[in-house]
Amino acid sequence: MGHSGGSINVNLLLLSPAARELFQQAVAMSGAMGLNVFPLVKDRNEQNSRYIAYSVGCAKDNTTQFWNNATAVNNVLACLRNKSALELSSQQRLAEKAGIPKLQGVALDSGPNALFPSSYVELLENITEVPLVTGTVSKETLDSKFLIKDAVYVDQELLLWYCEQVFITRGYDYQNITIEVCAQEYNSSSRAINLADDITYYVTHYNLAKRMSQSKQPVYLYQFEYAGIGDAFVRPNTPQLVPEETPAHAQEMTYILGQHLGNFTKKDKKIQKIFSSFFANFAKYGNPSPVGVDWEEFDPARKNYFVIDFDEQLKMPGMKNGYHERAVRFWDEIIENMTGGVRIIESETEVPAEIKRPNNPVPIPSNSPPPISATEFEYTNGTNWKLLFWIGVGIIALLVIIYIITLCICGNQRQKYYETME
Fold this sequence. Notes:
13 helices; transmembrane; Carboxylesterase type B domain-containing protein; six-stranded mixed beta sheet; membrane; alpha/beta
């Protein structure tokens, strides 16, 4: 069982041949692997590791020739084992500030005891098939909400830039039209705010559930949507989230593990008992359904999932169809067909590890196609509030003109009528 990064570890253990037969069930919460989510490559974390070794004085050189020397590498490892965790972790922070990729994910390895001996695609074909509970919360990170300005309209230039960054970091072979289609799809505040979560959580979790459902083992997909967490979840020195931004990433864990435990009301205590019973039931019986609740197995054709929410009587909506259906269709079908899907990355140097928020003006990567002006693209899907405002002004002005013309015509006709009466 794992959450977030721990959920990625669950994914990895299911993929690893070395871990086969070790687990009978799995729970993956708010974190799922994808082809280029922490890509399995031979040089994973290489730049960061070498930087740290050199910074703490364990590596005399930082050239390729030095690192290709087996004796030198063994000496570096022996030196690092004598360094404190604090010294190494402090250098890691400095490495990240210097622009070195973060330490994340695992490396593709080889040999008889290899944990990950082949590509993600090959490992996925032979994934350990066990009963699985997997799902997300409805507001995860909202990391793309900065695309929305004044809480109303979408910044077109930022949206175009962000769509391109998605294609770059995920390894898509894209063109200008691909960026345009992405911008069209997410050109509304309700869609733009979910762009980051769609590609990071919702589509990847759907694909995990879909792959695991191909086996004879049951798969249960859920979404936690209870927005009344309030003071039950408290992070030190961090403002409380507004209800519109909850439940956010990891907030549901307060009901399971007491993570960032705040002040529980009577309702919170009852929710804790109900919610935790799902996982206890799954561990004991292989089915998360509590007494009186029917949690159906996942069916890719229906994209069915269990909605975890609680009204005042602690009743839950239960099963629904169409788990993030629009996002799944867009990324798994439309973008897949336009680009041929993401390419297999063979080195961590091929793509950036993450999307960093831009400064103004928006920087366009040098290896990208010519930038697209927001004025060159006609957005037909979503709400452009500035455009609607000026359309409204134009309509009002037109009505006023028509009204004035009508008054003039009626006045002339009335004058002619009186002249004929005379």
